[in-house]
Amino acid sequence: MLETIKDTLRKSDYFMLLLMVILAVISFSAIYSAVYDPSTGEVQNHPYKQIRVFAFGLLSYATISFVGYRRIVKYAIPLYILGCIFLVVVKFKGFSGMGAQRWLLIGSLSIQPSELFKWVWVVMLAWVFNDLQSESMGLLKIMRKFIWLIPPFLLVFFQPDLGTAATYLMTWGLVVLFLGVKRSIIGLMLIVLFVSAPVAWGHLKDYQKMRVITFIAPDKYAGKEGYQAIQARIAIGSGGLTGKGYLKGTQSHLRFMPERHTDFIFAVINEEFGFAGGITVIGIFFVLISRIIYIAAQLKDAHGKMLCVSIASFIFFQFFVNVGMTIGLAPVVGVPLPFVSAGGSSLLTFISMLGLINSVYISKAGDNFI
Amino acid sequence: MLFSSLKDDVMNYFKNRGKYSVLVVFLLCCLLLCKLLYFQIFRYEELYALSEKNRIRVMRVRADRGVIKERNGVLLVKNSPGYELEIIKEDIKNVGLLLDNLSSIITMDKSKVMRRLKRSYLYEPVKVTRGLNFEQISYLMEHSAQYPGVQFVVDPMRSYLDGSIFSHIIGYMQEVNEKEVEELSDYQAGDIIGRSGIEKQFEEVLRGKDGSRWVEVDSVGRVTEILSETASVPGNNVILTIDYRLQQFIDTIMEERQGSVVVLDGTDNSVLALYSAPTYDLNMFNPFITSENWQKLLNNPKKPLLNRPIEGAYPPGSVFKILAAVAGLMENTVTPETRFFCNGSFRVSPRSNIVHSCWKKTGHGEVALLRGLSESCDVYFYNLGYTLGIDKLHEYSNKFSLGRLTGISLPNEKSGIFPSKEWKLRALKEPWYPGETVNISIGQGYTTVTPLQIAVMVSSIFNGGNVYRPRIVDAIEDPFTESRTVIPPEISVTVTVPKHIRDIVMRGIVMAVEGGGGTSWRARSSGVRLGGKTGTAQVVSLKRTENMREADIPEHWRDHSWFTGIYPAEKPRYTIVVMIEHGGSGGRISAPLAGAIVNKMLDLGYVGNN
To answer: Of B12, B113, B122, which to mutate for an interface test with A (greatest number of A Cβ within 10 Å)?
Structure first.
């Protein structure tokens, strides 16, 4: 037992841990600034809550590293079923916010099962895609792998939480793309997308439709839904190269944004630290994602590889959509910036994902690594 | 097999895909950086200027609250312009200092304003106070440089035709509390909401729906562009069945008395007048009530906030005999010819040691229905009620609305109590003693009723037995088209009272007003014949006061004084109830007041020769 702990500590990926700590520092500072009230000097408790969750997340990170991803992937199916049950429960027993039924109250903690399910989903993806081949996948194989997506996707889509449902779908899609798809199938998928888009549109709530419309024509709807997009743009642009300085961006329009400490945290960073802040965050994510893929490439075990790919896909997708939405490259959907946006469930989920990566990294000392 | 090592070809394939993906991620990151640079370098100046100068704000477009009119279209409550002071957090440098400065000019609750500021967004105006006067505004305008972030908003205030004569009907308004702001999505801190009367009951009808306007403002807060707008929807008007002139007249004759007046039109139990004394001035709440005045109202022993006609429950005394007579006749317990001998007292059985006495200690002698009613002989009704039994008394009382809510569209109505066997078992855990029925028959005992219930009872008996829910709101009016949606009359119970029974009871109570020995002669009116019945409801046991002279009895020990009348006697339509708390005998105090009101209705053309 003691030996295993020592072993875990000795073989851990401290570079990744460092990246995570840097992100945590950025997160704390940005959230602090976002909820800081310059007229009274008061700060709401979000940043401190973030720190507490981070500490708890490290515990989860260490536990997962210690237990090892292999034992976890073995239980992928029960985990998946349990996760789906939670998603059903939240539909009926959860309480709602922002038009959707998302939260579940356990004791005094409000948790968001659809966030925590992301962790289950990457484990599941590793299990589903473990039959690695040295060639692109055919239609039948893809269809078989698609089945697993349907239950969680529909459950979350009808919460309705379009953003989170999209992360499940897109992560799956990115994993498929990573593994390679025959060209004919890419063409087929595009056709399906075009056909299903109007159907999906019909199922969207008005506020979700407005987000898409706003993305296409933000200026026209500046008064209402485009408001956040425009405010975010002003915040980012006014930051310039070096920003207005820490806590100095507070006089600006970020104050208008109800979700500045969650979905629009990247705008806060850019207003106060300018391009320097922006490139730092983007750079860290690039290094983190590349490192995960690097670890994956060297590993001999299929599950470990796929776990890395799924997690890299997840982090990349959320990072790209969140930043893209803030700077007007993607519609305003409620996707938090991994590790940075305020939100306990999301932070815990992503730290636990890195826990899995660390456990994969540790295993490189064994026979599975080149 | 599960965790087997991969073959070299798979490893290499995977490695290539990995390199390829890192490249894609890199390119996409570059795309993000390009877009960032585009905003932060090429559009820096423009966006920086926007962030410094232009602000986008949401302004509320207030919906006008509906007005309240009486039956002839007289505006009882309308809106008049008032001014509110708001502050915008974003424009304030030092909140504490600003509030300190402001509080030397205007009255406000600083801690409340601080709480509101804390909860609002920077750009959102926060209400500081309402009802500014002209001097305050002009002072603040002159010294506007010292008060950054302060703005004035026109805030329609309630304006009353008269502050006190219909206070209990209209009801007062107050600011919403913090809990309501959270629970009611349409209300913001500082909004006013109906707290009593029609203003409360019809809050949703009157309020309307606020609109909103997104605007761009420049650095001094001037609107430079309207980005989008949602129009407000004004509230609807409420048309009452009340007659302002009648209500006003009642106000002049009530003087210092404490009590109620109700006038109903029996065709559908429309309320022509509903007066509660003492009253209070609605203007005390306009724009807001000071805590000193509020305490005064709450602690006033005369309870001016109580809407006595519907919230005050009293023993009915002899006015109940009208119902007892109708019930007795309808159940054939008595006929008009049935006689009882009154020697001044009544015992349930010759051996009983409980003596129920008649108000006339010397006795009325042989009494039949007509004289029983006109001279209000207690012994006659002891006999009638005792024979009829509590079950039947309760059944009829309940049908004619005693001891239950009449259903008038006003908040806080009380049901009073009309006892039954079940009620006593439930409330007092005791069985019913037959002797108790005796007291109930003359409107004493456990019974308490509201003046409105008595009015509904009388009105519904003489309209043939249709117990309408009293109507105080005639219609809802659209503020633009003035088209009215009438709120139709609603019958809660129907009891067919045959005409011969109504006629004989009417004869009895007309005799009470006109006959020599009648108790109600002080209600006589020269222009109209009316039937009337007095009631004197004991507040304390007779034993405590019977040896005192009336003037020596402390006021709160004095009897409640009732009078109810129905007129014109030939074709009964209007019912009046006058109830004066601790007024002493019904015949002496309430009957003449009722007479005066009937005469006023004669003047107003409700009844008369035509």
So the answer is: B122
- How far is the C-alpha of B299 from the C-alpha of B236, rounded, in Å? 35
Residues in A touching B149 (Cβ below 8 Å): none
Pair (B462, B561) in one structural domain: yes
Chain B partners within 8 Å of A370 (Cβ): 11
Task: Determine, for residues A253 and B56 on separate chains, whether the beta-carbon distance falls below 8 Å.
Answer: yes
Question: Do B253 and B141 share a structural domain?
Answer: no
What confidence category does residue A223 fall into, taking pLDDT thresholds of 50, 70 and 90? very low
Pair B251, B180 in one domain: no
> A261 to chain B: which residues are within 8 Å by CB?
none
CA distance A27 to chain B (A): 19
Q: What is the residue extent of each domain of chain A?
A: 2-365
- Could you give the count of Cα atoms lying within 13 Å of A111 in the half-sphere of its Cβ? 18
Note the pLDDT of residue A94: 65
Q: What is the pLDDT of residue B1?
A: 41
Return the active site residues of B.
318
Taking the C-alpha atoms of residue A287 and residue A23, their distance in angstroms, rounded to an integer, is: 12
Contact A329 B28 (CB under 8 A): no
CATH code, B345? 3.40.710.10
Structure token digits, residue B407: 């259903």
Asked if the structure places residue B199 within a domain, the reply is yes
Instruction: Please indicate, yes or no, whether residues B324 and B236 belong to a single structural domain of this protein.
Output: no
Span A341-357, average pLDDT: 93
| Other CB atoms within 10 Å distance of the CB of residue A7 | 13
B32 occurs within a structural domain: no
| The pLDDT of residue A302 is above 80 | yes
Whether residues B214 and B259 share a domain: the answer is no
The beta-carbon neighbor of A236 closest among B40, B52, B229 is B40
Q: Looking at the structure, do residues B222 and B165 belong to the same domain, yes or no?
A: yes
Global ipTM: 0.90
Residues of B in contact with A286 (CB under 8 A): 25-26, 29
Q: Which of B2, B14, B89 sits opposite A297 (nearest CB)?
A: B14
Contact criterion met (CB < 8 Å) for B95 and A39: yes
Q: What is the mean pLDDT of residues A85-92?
A: 85
Mean pLDDT of A164-185: 89
Counting Cβ atoms within 10 Å, is residue A226 exposed (0-12), middle (13-18) or buried (19+)?
Answer: buried
CA B328, B333, B339, B340: dihedral to nearest 10 degrees? Answer: -90
CB contact under 8 A, A282 and B214: no
Task: Check whether residue B194 and residue B314 sit in a common domain.
Answer: no
Can you give the pLDDT at residue B67? 95
Asked if residues B531 and B565 have their Cβ atoms less than 8 Å apart, the reply is yes
The answer as to whether B11 is a domain residue is no
Q: Which of B21, B38, B42, B44 to mutate to test the interface with A (most CBs of A within 10 A)?
A: B21
Contact B5 A224 (CB under 8 A): no
User: Is position B27 within any domain?
Assistant: no
Flag residues of chain B having pLDDT under 50. 1-2, 610
Q: What are the angstrom distances between the C-alpha of B228 and each of A55, B153, B221, B224?
A: 45, 20, 17, 13
Q: Is the pLDDT of residue A290 over 80?
A: yes
Q: Into how many domains does chain B fold?
A: 2
- The per-residue pLDDT for A81 is 95
Range of the domain at B73: 57-240
Q: What is the pTM of this model?
A: 0.65
pLDDT at residue A370 in the model: 40
CB contact under 8 A, A237 and B10: no
Query: How far apart are the C-alpha atoms of B102 and B325, rounded to whole Å?
Result: 68
**Of B3, B117, B122, Cβ closest to residue A303:** B3
Q: State residue A222's pLDDT score.
A: 47
pLDDT (0 to 100) of residue B256: 87
- Rounded to a whole number of angstroms, the distance from the CA of B21 to the nearest CA of chain A is 7
* Confidence band, pLDDT 50/70/90 cuts, at residue A252: very low
Query: CA-CA distance, A32 to B607, in Å (whole number)?
Result: 77
User: B407 with B466, same domain?
Assistant: yes
3-class DSSP assignment, residue A257: coil
The pLDDT of residue A367 is above 50: no
- Chain B residues inside the 8 Å CB shell of A307: none
